[in-house]
Design brief:
The protein has 431 residues and is α/β, with parallel strands linked by helices. The chain contains 13 helices and 13 strands. A 5-stranded mixed barrel has the order 1-2-3-5-4. A 5-stranded parallel beta sheet has the order 7-6-8-9-10, with helices on both faces. Strands 11-12-13 form a 3-stranded antiparallel beta sheet, with no helix packed on it. A hairpin with a 4-residue loop joins strand 12 and strand 13. The longest helix has 44 residues.
């Protein structure tokens, strides 16, 4: 490369733009602009190359596409750009996980120092291996019923202690803490830090989940991460982690990534939150909303109670306005007269009945006295009867010497029969 060297004053350092990068030194450094131009000139000499890989990111902004392409065997990735003019010539069915072959040319931007690859052609090869494995696992888990809403546990209304699994000093942890405390200031957390990407993600997350699930004080567990491209979220689609979440006894909330991110953990968790902030809103109630609800319920209760009391007072006033309750002595006075009349009538009836029965008793007594043998005896007659109570009706019943008892009007006397008296003598006796 031919470099123009301007004249310099002896003993002075040349201007930075006049120093080639290979000739730079602490005394004569080159400029950032010249370094970037040199890199740009070197990169421009590279030709286009066809490369095979899996699309792990595909974002459309301003009509252009910015994405990443991952190696099929390793974790190596490159950034690529598809300008709108090229995108117009391509099919419209590109998505994350596609296995593709792309014609790329290195592109270096001197102003920002960014390095990327411009895509001039893009061809489908097939579904990426990772996406294919995830889809097969998704089908298996769905067939086992792990996605069934009936097996998902409901969240407690107000958890006493929230278990949080997230990266240490992560934005996701701050978002969950801040938004939960804004909604319920006295909320408590038990946080377990774990790697949220890479090889340590799955074992550390499983260990943290088992520890929190075994803690009887933890009412709900939140697994949170602040989003990322599908490649970095693969750990949250791992079958080992997904099955541990499905077997947990404590309700689990998945807050992985953003609205468009959808690892398998979202399908197995009891509740899926679109973001860590959304997880905080789902786990704890809003104290202001609850206070408003309590105030509303108290107002409704006061209204119902006031209405009931008002109604009962009106009914009581209506009853009190009735004559019988307004002047209760009127009822007693009217009834007293009726009672007096009935009592008088009862006495008259009783008196008449007593008099009638008294007369009847007198008549019966007179009849009884008239028919009684004692009345006959009182007139001077007597009754003679032998021993054993046999009444003497014939003189032949009392032969001479027979002992008998003679009953007169007052008392009885003992007598002995002298035998039958001739009729002439008997007729001469007293009448």
């Amino acid at each position: 490369m031919t470099t123009f060297q301007p004249d310099t004053v002896p003993g002075e350092a040349p201007p930075p733009d006049s120093v080639a990068p290979r000739d730079s030194s602490p005394q004569a450094p080159t400029s950032v602009s010249r370094l970037n131009d040199t890199i740009r000139g070197f990169v421009d000499r590279w030709g286009s190359v066809w490369v095979e890989g899996e699309i792990t990111s595909w974002n459309v902004r301003g009509g252009n596409v910015f994405g990443r392409l991952k190696d099929l065997a390793t974790d190596a990735t490159i950034s690529f750009r598809v300008w709108s003019s090229t995108l117009a010539r391509l099919p419209k069915d590109w998505k994350v996980g596609d296995h593709v072959i792309a014609c790329v040319k290195a592109d270096y931007f001197p102003r920002t120092g960014d390095f990327s690859f411009a895509v001039s052609a893009l061809r489908h090869v097939g579904l990426g291996d990772q996406l294919e494995r995830l889809e097969r696992l998704r089908v298996t888990l769905r067939a086992e019923g792990l996605f069934d809403p009936a097996r998902k546990k409901s969240l407690p209304f107000l958890p006493h202690l929230i278990g949080l699994i997230t990266g240490e000093n992560s934005d996701a942890e701050k978002d969950v803490h801040r938004n939960a405390q804004l909604r319920w200031p006295h909320v408590r957390f038990r946080t377990k830090h774990a790697a949220v990407q890479g090889d340590r993600c799955v074992p550390e997350t499983i260990a943290a989940l088992k520890a929190l699930d075994a803690d009887p004080e933890v009412d709900v567990i939140v697994i949170a991460r602040g989003g990322g491209d599908p490649q970095t979220l693969l750990g949250f689609s791992d079958e080992r982690l997904v099955r541990v979440v499905a077997a947990a006894q404590t309700p689990v909330v998945s807050a992985i990534g953003h609205e468009n991110d959808h690892p398998l953990l979202d399908d197995v968790a009891d509740v899926r939150a679109s973001t860590p902030t959304d997880a905080a809103k789902r786990v704890v109630p809003d104290v202001s909303e609850q206070r408003a609800l309590v105030a509303q319920l108290r107002a409704r209760l006061a209204g119902r109670l006031t209405h009931r009391i008002t109604h009962d007072i009106a009914q009581l006033e209506q009853l009190r306005s009735r004559p019988v309750l307004r002047s209760p002595d009127t009822l007693l006075t009217g009834r007293a007269q009726e009672v007096w009349m009935l009592a008088t009538r009862g006495r008259d009836v009783v008196d008449r009945l007593v008099a009638a029965h008294d007369r009847r008793t007198t008549e019966l007594r007179a009849s009884l006295r008239a028919l009684s043998p004692l009345a006959t005896l009182a007139r001077g007659y007597a009754i003679a009867h032998l021993h054993g109570g046999v009444i003497v009706r014939d003189a032949a019943q009392a032969p001479a010497g027979a002992e008998m008892t003679v009953t007169v009007g007052r008392g009885s006397i003992a007598a002995r029969s002298e035998g039958e008296v001739p009729e002439s003598d008997a007729s001469a006796g007293p009448a």
